[in-house]
From TrEMBL, chain A:
<keyword id="KW-0813">Transport</keyword>
<keyword id="KW-1133">Transmembrane helix</keyword>
<protein>
    <submittedName>
        <fullName>Sugar ABC transporter permease</fullName>
    </submittedName>
</protein>
<feature type="transmembrane region" description="Helical">
    <location>
        <begin position="12"/>
        <end position="36"/>
    </location>
</feature>
<dbReference type="GO" id="GO:0005886">
    <property type="term" value="C:plasma membrane"/>
</dbReference>
<comment type="similarity">
    <text>Belongs to the binding-protein-dependent transport system permease family.</text>
</comment>
<keyword id="KW-0472">Membrane</keyword>
<keyword id="KW-0812">Transmembrane</keyword>
<dbReference type="InterPro" id="IPR035906">
    <property type="entry name" value="MetI-like_sf"/>
</dbReference>
Automatic annotation (TrEMBL), chain B:
<dbReference type="Pfam" id="PF17912">
    <property type="entry name" value="OB_MalK"/>
</dbReference>
<protein>
    <submittedName>
        <fullName>ABC transporter ATP-binding protein</fullName>
    </submittedName>
</protein>
<dbReference type="InterPro" id="IPR040582">
    <property type="entry name" value="OB_MalK-like"/>
</dbReference>
<dbReference type="GO" id="GO:0016887">
    <property type="term" value="F:ATP hydrolysis activity"/>
</dbReference>
<dbReference type="InterPro" id="IPR047641">
    <property type="entry name" value="ABC_transpr_MalK/UgpC-like"/>
</dbReference>
<dbReference type="GO" id="GO:0005524">
    <property type="term" value="F:ATP binding"/>
</dbReference>
<dbReference type="Pfam" id="PF00005">
    <property type="entry name" value="ABC_tran"/>
</dbReference>
<keyword id="KW-1003">Cell membrane</keyword>
<comment type="similarity">
    <text>Belongs to the ABC transporter superfamily.</text>
</comment>
Length: 287, 362
């Protein structure tokens, strides 16, 4: 086969190229630009090399917020994924209740993030909120604005409430795609409920669950709005996650250089961890 | 191992079936002998899969009983009935190896590992899968997967019946033939009762000793392939089996004699009985050119290899005949003769005199 050589075809790619340049490459490069420069105001910049990167990587503050971020992300993953699968398994696969369940499940996903934060903030207030007041009435000493444990509890509960649905919907999509013959064959083969889950449902859900874990990982690693509206990173810095810390440095202290360096490190961490997740989960797929 | 009896079985997917058409399965009474090879043949939607699922226990019939030997198993679940089923689309457990797939039904039943190992290797030998035992089942081709599904049924020693629900649908044509003969061979080796559901007459007729032909939720004929071909009990059987199918020609009956377009036709069965719509059934194989007989005109001749299919117009109806290669087709003034022994009168679809309009009423 002879291929026609026609370099003019590149022109067709040009619009996309321009679009991507303006919405991704150029903004990213500005950040890169800031990350290697120092300024004393007056819009004059000096070359500072990898100074900000080493500074950020060595700072205790960064280590702490990264640690908190990890705890948050892995806690919600550990809760939302099994819980989502469990709920999906109990949902009806046929009949009039299917749309009802689906709409109920989708509702939390439709609420704007800052509204979720505000809702939970009020919900959890110890003096007027239903949750806060209720817990105190039951004899628990609960105050999420003052006690670190309570703040974390509320933060994680809010995320579980907001995002488990996503896992449910994805897992459910995987479940309904399993043909009846599999269940019938399993019945004939004498498989119990656990064996059906382990050898039919779980393998068939694997792809959608991979997507679910990836999405929840990335989103939770970048969570900002809900958390900042709920706790504002407090009490103290106890719930200051990476994104909250970044905003504090960039817009609170206006340290553009360190903030830019941190953004890049932040981005690379998400990229690397996503890659690791994906590779691990897809490894068995190939063999 | 068991004889299977279906006793006045009926099923409807509706809660309150009223009309005849509400029943996916009208009354069915069949006895399948132990160790036989049976086929359930019929067009799509005739109720054969419903019937199969009732036998396997995946579906509870609206009425009637299923007996294995003399035990009523109607209320038992599939695993309590000790049956095996191969589905239309191959079911394998993707994450397991071929070995684990075959061992799965035994492990679920708590069979010890030494016995399991022995059985698995034996069956793997049977289905030519010994060399792939350690491979992941996921990577197999459709026919390989279908063999595994079958193997999972064979591996158990307590299986009463193995059922096949159109198992060759997704298999490549050139492998179909191979698998079909493999199945036949397997039946002879294991001697288990096998029920094979299909809408493909070739599959049914080559596999089964006895074929059950179904149409619109009822059994129209049970018989050997030869029976179905030579003595169709119903015009449906005549038309559905054979290629081309039986000619079904509306006719008139007067005083025990059958007339087709004014010519009297001799038939093999008793024409005196029965009223209703009268039709003559004669297979294309049993129509020949003759010096005296029914006048007809040749419309079309198609060459089908070793024989020709001749389409004629006779008494204002289309009549197909099958003639061998060497036979000359007369130019005009064609006269046709029917082989009397294989020409029958049907009333209301059923062979005249064979049954007293039974079966259709419920």
């Amino acid at each position: 086969m002879n291929k026609t050589v026609n370099q003019k075809a590149w022109l067709f790619v040009l619009p996309v190229f321009i679009l991507v340049a303006f919405n991704a490459v150029i903004p990213l490069m500005t950040v890169v630009n800031y990350s290697v420069q120092e300024t004393f105001g007056d819009n004059t910049f000096f070359w500072s090399g990898v100074l900000w990167f080493t500074e950020i990587l060595q700072s205790e503050r960064f280590h702490d917020s990264l640690g908190r971020q990890m705890i948050f992300t892995f806690s919600i993953l550990a809760i939302e994924v099994p819980l989502g699968v469990a709920i999906a398994l109990t949902m009806p696969r046929k009949g009039a209740w299917v749309p009802v369940c689906l709409v109920l499940m989708a509702l939390p996903l439709l609420i704007p993030w800052n509204v979720v934060g505000a809702m939970w903030n009020i919900f959890a207030l110890p003096d007027i909120g239903l949750l806060g007041y209720g817990l105190n009435a039951m004899g628990f000493d609960y105050n999420f604005t003052r006690q670190i444990g309570d703040a974390w509890f509320t933060l994680i509960l809010m995320d579980v409430w907001h995002w488990t649905s996503l896992v449910v919907l994805l897992a459910y999509a995987g479940l309904v795609s399993i043909p009846d013959a599999y269940y019938q064959a399993a019945k004939i083969d004498g498989a119990g409920a656990f064996a059906i889950f382990r050898y039919i449902q779980l393998p068939k859900m694997k792809r959608v669950l991979t997507i679910a874990v990836l999405l929840r990982f990335m989103d939770s690693f970048m969570v900002y709005t809900e958390a900042v509206v709920l706790t504002g990173g407090g009490p103290g810095n106890s719930t200051t996650l990476l994104s909250i810390d970044l905003v504090k440095i960039a817009l609170g202290q206006f340290d553009l250089g360190p903030a830019a360096a941190m953004s890049i490190i932040y981005f690379l961490i998400i990229l690397a961890l996503s890659w690791v997740f994906y590779t691990l989960m897809m490894r068995n797929e190939e063999s | 191992m068991a004889r299977i009896t279906l006793d006045k079985l009926g099923h409807s997917y509706m809660e309150n079936p009223v009309a005849d058409a509400d029943w996916a399965l009208k009354q069915v009474d069949i006895t399948w002998d132990d160790g036989g090879a049976y086929a359930l043949l019929g067009p799509s939607g005739c109720g054969k899969t419903t019937l199969l699922n009732i036998i396997s226990g995946l579906l509870r019939p609206s009425q009637g009983r299923v007996l294995f030997d003399d035990d009523d198993v109607t209320a038992l679940s599939p695993d309590q009935r000790h049956i095996a089923q191969v589905f239309q689309f191959p079911v394998v457990y993707d994450t397991m190896t071929v070995y684990e797939n075959l061992a799965f039904p035994l492990r679920n039943r708590g069979v010890d590992s030494a016995t399991t190992d022995k059985r698995v290797r034996e069956i793997a030998e049977f289905i030519d899968m010994t060399h792939r035992l350690d491979d992941r089942a996921k990577g197999l081709t459709a026919d390989g997967k279908q063999k595994i599904s079958l193997g999972r049924g064979l591996v158990r020693t307590d299986v009463n019946v193995i059922m096949f629900d159109e198992p060759l649908t997704v298999i490549d044509p050139h492998l179909k033939w191979e698998l079909r003969s493999k199945l036949k061979e397997l039946h002879q080796r294991v001697g288990r009762t096998m029920i094979y559901v299909t809408h493909d007459q070739t599959e049914a007729l080559t596999f089964a000793d006895k074929v059950v032909v179904m149409n619109e939720g009822e059994v129209v004929q049970i018989g050997t392939p030869v029976d179905l071909f030579e003595r169709p009990q119903h015009t449906f059987v005549g038309h559905f089996i054979g290629s081309p199918g039986m000619n079904v020609l509306p006719c008139t009956v007067d005083g025990g004699k059958v007339y087709l377009g004014g010519n009297q036709i001799a038939v093999a069965n008793d024409a005196a009985q029965g009223g209703g719509t009268a039709e003559i059934g004669v297979r294309p194989e049993f129509v020949s050119f003759a010096d005296n007989g029914l006048p007809a005109t040749v419309v079309k001749v198609s060459d089908a290899g070793r024989h020709k299919i001749v389409e004629t117009r006779c008494a204002d109806q289309t009549l197909r005949m099958l003639i061998s290669e060497g036979v000359e087709i007369p130019a005009d003034g064609v006269k046709l003769a029917f082989d009397t022994a294989n020409t029958r009168l049907y009333t209301d679809g059923w062979l005249a005199g064979s049954r007293s309009a039974g079966g259709e009423g419920r």
